[in-house]
Specification:
The chain is of the alpha/beta class. The protein contains 16 helices and eleven strands.
């Protein structure tokens, strides 16, 4: 009995000494929880079918001078030509290369071995947007038909949580988005296609946009002009201050399908300016300033060859699985253009979006991993 008691006392003494040493050395503090992220709001922004080639190289000379695809080659060269890829891309998307490249990160320059790809086998819009928002590829989502998405997106998943319920919104130019988001089940407000701003307390600008949208025809039956999507979104954001927003611009894809390289380039530059305007507003609004992250990407790429392949995408057009993404916000290291060899995937967006909000997104299927490089450790 004497030995047992003494042994227990000795163990207690050693434990006390060890505990005191840990406290003094600060070892417990090194095991502390990571610092909380500053991001409280996330905007995911997509440019439909915007090629990585133009993002990183600006206007392509082979297309810039081709009158098959350009109405006024002299004018277009004045706007977008340059002696280097850096000069050309700065002319095309100045906000991306003046702001994101200095304060955020840009991925997907395949000329440097930096690759981003879709993981779905189809390489067109509905499968791409579903992959972005669910975090996985479903081969059975194989058309752009207006069929309700059977899967829960990260937007719907967040909207089910008390902190985000009623604070998630979607704005898009394409009229299929209500089905991709499955608005009936998700209960997320979707303003897409040719829908009007609705509800009480509309701003005077929203009332005017409703009227103007009916008076200005779109060249396409299922996609409105991006200016309406942008300003409907901006007015809603000013008025309602949602915490999670997806804005899906569409013109780049439709002008490309039409074979109008000039309009495709001008639309890309205009969309870049609109995202810049949105970022400027966010930084000026106390609700969002220094607490908001933008994730920017595309749903698919475009074909590489022959010379008219840039108009198309899909499995039969090699290269249209190649995409890109960018990020800017208070928790993202300013790496600029990421030039290292590497492979990233479209299915990583959903979990990364949630991670910025301190959430661990899960689904019934395995989802893509967080892009850890985007988030300060």
């Amino acid at each position: 009995m004497y030995f047992s008691a003494g042994y227990s006392s000795l163990k207690a003494t050693r434990f006390a000494v060890l505990l005191l040493g840990l406290l003094v050395s600060g070892s417990f503090s090194t095991v502390a929880q990571p610092k909380p992220l500053k991001t409280e709001n996330v905007f995911i922004i997509t440019l439909d079918g915007m090629r990585w080639q133009e993002l990183f190289g600006g206007a392509a000379d082979s297309l810039l001078n081709d009158k098959t695809f350009v109405g006024d080659t002299a004018q277009l060269k004045t706007l977008f030509a340059g002696s280097t890829a850096e000069e050309r891309r700065m002319k095309l998307m100045p906000w991306m290369w003046q702001t994101v490249s200095k304060q955020g990160q840009i991925y997907g320059n395949r000329w440097l071995g930096n690759k981003v790809n879709v993981s779905n086998p189809h390489w067109f819009s509905y499968p791409g947007y579903s992959e972005i928002l669910t975090g996985f590829s479903d081969p059975e989502i194989n058309s752009n038909n207006k069929i309700d998405n059977p899967h829960v997106t990260v937007l719907e998943w967040l909207n089910q949580k008390p902190a985000y319920q009623g604070k998630v919104a979607f704005f898009g130019s394409w009229d299929v988005f209500p089905f991709i988001i499955n608005e009936k089940r998700s209960d997320i407000p979707v303003n897409a296609g040719f829908r009007r701003a609705e509800g009480k307390g509309l701003s005077s600008r929203e009332v005017f946009l409703n009227e103007l949208q009916e008076q200005i025809p779109s060249p396409w039956g299922s996609v409105r002009l991006d200016a309406f999507t942008h300003h409907f979104a901006l007015e809603y954001i000013k008025r309602k201050h949602p915490r999670v927003v997806h804005i899906a611009y569409g013109e780049t894809d439709d002008f490309a399908h039409d074979g109008h390289y000039d309009h495709y380039l001008k639309s890309a530059r205009q969309t870049d300016a609109m995202i810049g305007q949105l970022w400027q507003f966010v930084q000026s609004d106390p609700f969002y300033a220094q607490k908001t992250t933008f994730l920017i990407t595309t749903d698919h790429g475009r074909g590489d060859t022959p010379k008219d392949a840039w108009k198309h995408h899909g499995k039969e057009h090699a290269g249209s699985d190649a995409i890109w993404f960018a990020v800017i916000g208070p928790d993202t290291p300013a790496l600029g253009e990421v030039k290292t060899n590497g492979q990233w995937w479209q299915n990583q967006m959903a979990k990364t979006l949630a991670a910025f909000l301190g959430q661990e997104y899960t689904s019934k299927r395995e989802v893509g991993k967080v892009v850890q490089e985007m988030i300060k450790k």
